[in-house]
């Protein structure tokens, strides 16, 4: 699947909730996981491949999973800053401050309710992906734009944990 490139206006749309979790959605999830792995990346939201629905996939090395219709139930007051990147903005990274712990509720690929308590790096990834569902990209949240820097393809591959 083709990953849209910023500033494609599609990336600014607010995505709609998934109404029915059927084989079509499961096939999309499978394709999104393959696309994420091939990129390579650690997260991919449906709007990034041109599907305006609330769904994303993540794989931090412990196996891929999908979250459908995610909602952030709680977030810590304590913030953390990671240098983020995005498959829609290849070649650049920048520091983003986000709550360090969050609880996300959603549905899995079979429509079962799931609750994810995430901290550290996973907390940042989940928030980055949920932002995509609301038309937000990470550079919107880099406070000091001079801190956005270019990186090489090789650097990106060696630092996959930078999203
Ligand atoms: Zn992204």
Automatic annotation (TrEMBL):
Reaction equations catalysed: N-terminal N-formyl-L-methionyl-[peptide] + H2O = N-terminal L-methionyl-[peptide] + formate
BP GO terms, sorted: translation
Cofactor annotation: Fe(2+)
CDD domains: Pep_deformylase
Highest rank taxon of the organism: Bacteria
EC number: 3.5.1.88
Keyword Protein biosynthesis: yes
Residue numbers binding Fe cation: 86, 128, 132
GO molecular function list: metal ion binding; peptide deformylase activity
InterPro entries: Peptide_deformylase, Peptide_deformylase_sf
Membrane-spanning ranges: none
Manner of cofactor binding, per the entry note: Binds 1 Fe(2+) ion.
Keywords: Hydrolase, Iron, Metal-binding, Protein biosynthesis
Residues forming the catalytic site: 129
Entry keyword annotation includes Methyltransferase: no
Cited Gene3D superfamilies: Peptide deformylase
PANTHER family: PEPTIDE DEFORMYLASE (PTHR10458)
Similarity field: Belongs to the polypeptide deformylase family.
Its job: Removes the formyl group from the N-terminal Met of newly synthesized proteins. Requires at least a dipeptide for an efficient rate of reaction. N-terminal L-methionine is a prerequisite for activity but the enzyme has broad specificity at other positions.
Protein name per UniProt: Peptide deformylase
Organism: Candidatus Saganbacteria bacterium
Lineage per the UniProt record: Bacteria, Bacillati, Saganbacteria
Chain's gene name: def
């Amino acid at each position: 699947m083709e990953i849209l490139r910023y500033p494609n206006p599609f990336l600014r749309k607010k995505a709609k909730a998934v109404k029915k979790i059927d084989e079509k959605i499961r096939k999309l999830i499978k394709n999104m996981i393959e696309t994420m792995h091939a990129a390579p990346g650690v997260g991919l939201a449906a709007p990034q491949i041109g599907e305006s629905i609330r769904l994303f996939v993540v794989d931090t090395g412990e196996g891929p999973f999908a979250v459908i219709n995610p909602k952030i139930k709680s977030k810590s007051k304590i913030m953390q800053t990671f240098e983020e990147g995005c498959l829609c903005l290849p070649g650049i990274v920048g520091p983003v401050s986000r709550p360090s712990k969050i609880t996300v509720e959603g549905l899995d690929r079979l429509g079962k309710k799931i609750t994810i308590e995430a901290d550290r790096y996973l907390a940042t990834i989940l928030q980055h992906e949920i932002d995509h569902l609301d038309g937000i990209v990470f550079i919107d949240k880099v406070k000091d734009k001079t801190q956005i820097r270019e990186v090489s393809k090789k650097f990106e591959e060696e630092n996959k944990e930078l999203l």
